[in-house]
Each structure stands twice: as C-alpha cells, then as structure tokens.
Amino acid sequence: MTRPNTAPSYPAPTTARRCADMGDIRTEIDRLDRLIVPLLAERLNYVGQAAAYKPSRAEVVVHWRIEDVVTKVRALAVAENADPDTVERIYRGLIDASIAWEGRNYDRTRNDRR
C-alpha cells in the first residue's frame, strides 16, 4: 500500500556514494557546495555580461529563454535520476535571482555611462 500525497522516489545518481551516517552526508553536501558555488559565480558572471547586450531593461526578462532553460534542466534531471520537479523549482529560483542580478547590472552599466 502506498501513502497518499507522497512524492515519487528517484534513485540516487550513480555518482553518489552510500553514506554511513549524518556526518558523512553533511561532509558530502559541503563538498558539493564547494563545487556548486564556483559554478554559480561563473554563471552569474555571464548573466551580468548579458545586461550589456540588452537594448532595454524590459529585455532582461526573456520568457522563452526561461522555459528553454527549464526544459533542458528537467531533461538533465531525468538523465541523472533526479526528481525533475525539484530541479525545476531550484532552477526557477536560480533564474529569478539571476534576473534580479542582471537587472542590477543593467542599471549599473547604464548609470556608469552617464
């Protein structure tokens, strides 16, 4: 018998090792964070650069591109045995933060030109 209202279970990606305890789990999460943050910094650098190519602030939000990114990361999640709904929620948050970052860069670069 399955419990109602439970999310589907996805097998752990093959690269994740089986941990012995919470200490091991936290160590692995910290290791992953040390890998993820530099990638986020690189991504934000590109997002910031994009502001220079946008002719108007309204073009900071590109709806078709948001959906394109979400479609791609959902497919990547499935390929990695991760829950695509969770990955989508994470990426939508990342995209929202990136749009705010790009908007600030857009404003800053326009103000610097004055």
**Termini Cα gap:** 67 Å
* Helical fraction: 55-70%
The number of helical runs is 3
The whole-number mean of residue pLDDT values reads 89
CATH third-level topology: Chorismate Mutase Domain, subunit A
The CATH architecture is: Up-down Bundle
Number of domains: 1
Structural class: mainly alpha
Written as H for each helix and E for each strand, in order along the chain, the element string is HHH
By CATH, the superfamily comes out as Chorismate mutase
Uncertain residue ranges: none
Question: CATH top level?
Answer: Mainly Alpha
Largest sheet: none
What does the oligomeric state look like here? single chain
Short summary:
By secondary structure, this protein is an all-alpha fold.
Characterise the protein shown here:
- The protein is 66% helix and 0% strand.
- By secondary structure, the protein is mostly helical.
- It has one domain (25-112): Chorismate mutase (Chorismate Mutase Domain, subunit A).
- It starts with 21 loop residues before the first helix and ends with a helix.
- The model has no long low-confidence stretch (mean pLDDT 89).
List the helices and strands and how they pair.
Elements: H1 22-50, H2 63-79, H3 84-112
Helix pairs in contact: 1-3, 2-3
Short key terms for the protein model shown above:
single chain; 114 residues; mainly alpha; Chorismate Mutase Domain, subunit A; 3 helices; 66% helix
